[in-house]
Amino acid sequence: xxxxYTALFAATLCLxxxxxxxxxxxxxxxxxGWNSWNYFADKVTxxxxxxxxxxxxxxxxxxxxxxxxxxxxxxxxxxxxSGEIHANARFPDMKALADYVHARGLKLGIYSSPGxxxxxxxxxxxxxxxxxxxxYAAWGVDYxxxxxxxxxxxxxxxxxxxxxxxxxxxxxxxxxxxxxLNQAGRPIVYSLCQYGMDAVWEWAADPKVGxxxxxxxxxxAPHGEFVYAIATMQAGLAHYAGPGHWNDPxxxxxxxxxxxxxxxxTHFSWWAMLAAPLLAGNxxxxxxxxxxxxxxxxxxxxxxxxxxxxxxxxxYTDGEVEVWTRPLSHGxxxxxxxxxxxxxxxxxxxFHLDLTRLGLxxxxxxxxxxxxxxxxIDDHQAxxxxxxxxxxxxxxxPQASR
Length: 402
Prior knowledge:
The protein is α/β, with parallel strands linked by helices. The protein contains 12 helices and 18 strands. 46% of the residues are buried.
């Protein structure tokens, strides 16, 4: 029997993925993909997800490293008499949808909650964790986002005025689903969404919970101030991240809301410096070319996906400027300068980079990752940077301070 090109591609890709899974840990680098919530919210449909998968291929996102096509809340229907979850009418055949996504060299993600209800009021997984994990595996799901939602109210009901017991309940709820996923027999990325409660970064990677990523903050919004606030909250969390387990400052808003082109570039650069999951949240089928160009900027993606897995840290702040660094494999270093000043003020005063505060000595040679130009960096060199924009440089052979 002669295989079609699509079928042959899918078969080859599945074989390659199987070999990779046997040799590499799950989420060895921060997951990359797309999530439906930021644009479609609770109105997402099967057609929307298929269109996103197609757009990931046609836009070049897949080839740039984006893999996961994640359905967020509102896909759930009712449970049958045996307790099995079924998708609602907007998703007539989840297995067929997974097959469609897989045939394009991508992976499918799904969403649930340890509570009785999800945040949008659909069926959660409380009391059905093993059933749901088996169902996800049978459908061909590759990623689970598990959102606290109504379980937070259950914690308060069962342990009123006992915050320590409430937190133990939360830990156990996430561990229960981890066990269920392990028993389901399919590699599934496990994403905890509980908004950074109880210093989640301290316990989420414990084998009992086994999270591959965990939200560190509340929800993001497509405004420059939200992006800045969330990014700066990641300071101090770097040593909790690494291959297989990542801090998650929430999904990308690149291309959404009132973000300017400079703010989109800054947002993407900051997430790359943070070794954050890169989960686009815009309408991929109708994105502007400049948005596509930001999301597929391979030099910046390479910072995020660097195999060393070291999250960037804040080196110092100076007025309205933040300077962050990130160690990379082969001794390289990424340096990001962010102008977080008020966009209503048309400031032109240049920033002077202090190399000694970055542990560097003498002139440095690097590459500006947004312009592609080779740059020489001198101590106290003046850098002109527009408000809410970024200067992102890779230094492949940094000269350290003596």
